[in-house]
UniProtKB/TrEMBL annotation:
SMART domains: Ald_Xan_dh_C. Signal peptide: none annotated. This is Xanthine dehydrogenase family protein molybdopterin-binding subunit. It holds the Pfam family Ald_Xan_dh_C. It comes from Streptomyces wedmorensis. Residues 1-16 have a biased composition (Polar residues).
Amino acid sequence: MAGTTTGIPRDVTQNHVKGGIGESTLRPDGTLKVTGEFAYSSDMWHEDMLWGQVLRSTVAHAEIVSIDTSEALAMDGVYAVMTHEDLPAAKNYGMEFQDTPVLAYGKVRHHGEPVVLVAADHPETARRAAAKVVIEYRELPVITDEASATAPDAILVHEGRDDHHSGHVPHPNIVHRQPIIRGNADEAAKRADVIVKGEYTFGMQDQAFLGPESGLAVPAEDGGVDLYVATQWLHSDLKQIAPCLGLPEEKVRMTMAGVGGAFGGREDISMQILASLLAMRTNKPVKMVYNRYESFFGHVHRHPAKLYYEHGATKDGKLTHMKCKIVLDGGAYASSTASVVGNASSLSVGPYVIDDVEIEAIGLYTNNPPCGAMRGFGAVQACFAYEAQMDKLAAKLGMDPVELRQLNAMEQGTIMPTGQVVDSPAPVAELLRMVKARPMPPERQWETAGEGADVRALPGGLSNTSHGEGVVRGVGYAVGIKNVGFSEGFDDYSTAKIRLEVINGEPVALVHTAMAEVGQGGVTIHAQIARTELGVQQVTIHPADTQVGSAGSTSAGRQTYMTGGAIKNSCGIVREKVLEIGRRKFGSYHPAWANAELLLEGGKVVTDNGEALASIADVLEDQAVEVEEEWRHRPTQAFDLVTGQGDGHVQYAFAAHRAVVEVDTELGLVKVIELACAQDVGKALNPLSVIGQIQGGTTQGLGVAVMEEIIVDPKTAKVRNPSFTDYLIPTILDTPTIPVDYLELADPNAPYGVRGIGEAPTLSSTPAVLAAIRAATGLELNKTPVRPEALTGTL
């Protein structure tokens, strides 16, 4: 009978499992992805399925006068055409504010807003049917910037706001305002020998994930729906989807499908509600896949920003004060704008010690495209500005820009402008030293012995625009600070279900979480943690779904910390249960069962000095141990709405970059030769994955520095470049060598001492590239991205 064995355990020999934490274990999905065999959400198929299509607004701000769907409904193969009048329950959804219509009603507030849904038996039929819908609009003036949004007589993007921020904002078109006041910046400015001011513009960046928004909704016999979708946060989606379908949450069963990148753009709802509505309306499975044009309208983007900064310093370089105002354009709907405002304000000082600050950050409602989460989340825009300020100060003081930064660098024990003490390592000066100490790449790499110029190494590349004439090298540095995890008092937790049992004579662990694997490698880390904590070789990762508790969002650099922490915690409880079973069975045969610290290693129960007592298989036999537990990090606090004071963040991450560029000053072309990074990662659970995350984040920062921007017409608020033809992202030809150095300075408050990795390198890579271009050209360059006309003076 299970659990009652009393015989002496068999002789066992200790061995160690492979693939635990600290090893560069290969990704289980890696080979499938590079060979093209991995199933993404857009690859899903169901017998007798229909295809969904969205008709979007062609104008940015207008009253909807009428919608005529008669011609679309009359087409062969069309099963359903839906407008807001056909919605069964809640008409709005949203992550923080429920201000986003499922389908527009009354009016549209941005270009590309969903208005009509179509389901048909072929995707081309669905597209043609959508094109036959006739919508009459009465256009309204557009709100596109701070001046038009906050004018006393401004048109309100949302009338009658009743959200939790509406009572403290100075204008209804301001989503959220967060001031931070510490010390007295005006008095401190009197001690400054040098003051520099700057106005900076950060362009709207797209996440540009290669896998489009897609999913499959299948109606269920119980009246619910089974939804297979690419997302970043299953349980957040669930809480928004169920009310719009008029269903209890338990009847909306969600399962993660293969995700082709995310970077924040899948944290909000895209097609989840729409596909489910069509499935319930037709009682047939419905698949939706956005094309690239639709994708640019189907998800939020990075907030464009205007940033106004003032810094002062004494003649020996010590910072005296800082003032700034940050204006973030949230677009037509709130998404996560309020949280982005909190991040931008609380991190606006950068990784520096400044006792006297006066900070204000606001997020606007406009008729521009909605903006929300993207890698870096408010800290990216601020870093671009404060690092440009550091270079201005260094130039005015006649100091080395790295030395100025090191002189003012924060360290463990520094008090942030919010009053929070940085209570874990903050090696800002050391990271700067590391990137500066790296050898420089060779000069004039395009020159090859006995041959002509290798144009691939020149600005302009294979377009063969230059053979080296007019090319000037520049070097720039930057460093940034990013929070890790959710902040400002949010109840941030993750859940892990762990099952340990014996299968075919071997102990096997099953790890079940709702973590969204979006390419970051979480499934790899989860298996490594389970092997380490339970001492077993065989680990199975259960598909992520909503049949287990929430794992929170795959964002904010939090998943290894949070879901990794949850797995570690649940594994620890499983381990204790296994040891208790072992003590009951075999305790009388060896005193170590009662007296020693016991571990699970190499499939065995062992003492802390390595003596093996029994195999896990002998302990468990046909008994399984299963635990599902939530795990939380230490609590944070909301920032005070007047002073900005509060312990708002759970952890900070730091990265520094050195950029080496070569600029064709005659044509305005830039070639980034090298973009070296140094970062503190706390503990590298998978060193290869660490390097990949740092290089990926660095490359996204490079993109916004020199090419990436969604261009919105300031007169009409229409998007001008919704395609990869006109919205450019770095390819392998644009991406430079990215050497990486990392420190492992453990955070004592985090599981294994880990520190979030993926976001910090996105911050400092952008200002490092801009600094290098400034060094090569002597131009001020206060806007991203840097375009050729900005370098040639032909704007």
